[in-house]
Amino acid sequence: MKKIIPFVIIILIVVIGVIMFLVLNNSKDSNELEESIGKAQLIEVYDYNTSELLKTYENKEDIESLINNLGLDKWKLDKEHNEDAKRYLLKMYQEPTKTVIENSNNEMEEVANIVVYASGEYVEFSAMGMEMSFKTNKNIANLFE
Predict the structure, then answer these.
(1) Per-residue model confidence as pLDDT tens digits over 4-56
(2) In this structure, what are the phi and psi dihedrals at residue 66, rounded to the nearest 5 degrees?
(3) How far, in Å, CA of 54 to CA of 52, rounded?
(4) Cβ(125)–Cβ(136) under 8 Å?
(5) Are 66 and 54 in contact (CB under 8 A)?
(6) Domains of the chain
(7) Nearest CA to 80 among 115, 47, 124?
(8) Does residue 49 contact residue 99 with C-beta atoms inside 8 Å?
């Protein structure tokens, strides 16, 4: 009996640790996502299938409005998108970091992409070689129609 009590305590500590890690990791990913997108200085929206440029967001107010309408703080990590078709591609750009030794040509560089699925309930975010899938809290595809 005395040997079982420490074992149960260790199991409880491990379970609580795993739960805390999952909760903190999910909010950390959401914060990193908001920070990455929030730095964008230009966002272009394309039809995923035809590559046709549908809309361009260039000024800070339009970009902030789009980011607010996306509801990033409500997105949840989710690996499934139910065979949903890809509908829109959002390309985000910002000016490259200027250094003393580099000669910048003042062209924007692509820093992140968001693929919006046809249902508008799922997205894929990619930046710096990292890809994440999210379930949104609303149909964000309506923002681009």
Answers:
(1) 665 556 554 654 544 544 444 544 444 555 555 667 788 999 999 999 999 99
(2) -60, -45
(3) 6
(4) no
(5) no
(6) 4-144 (3.30.1490)
(7) 124
(8) no
Coil, strand or helix: which one is 16?
helix
Looking up tokens 């595809």 gives 141
Strands (E), the chain: 42-47, 53-57, 76-77, 86-94, 109-117, 122-127, 130-135
* pTM (2 d.p.): 0.70
Question: How sure is the predictor about 113, in pLDDT bands with cuts at 50, 70 and 90?
Answer: very high
Query: How far is residue 126's CA from residue 123's CA, in Å, rounded to a whole number?
Result: 10
Q: Which two tokens stand for residue 33?
A: 């996502």
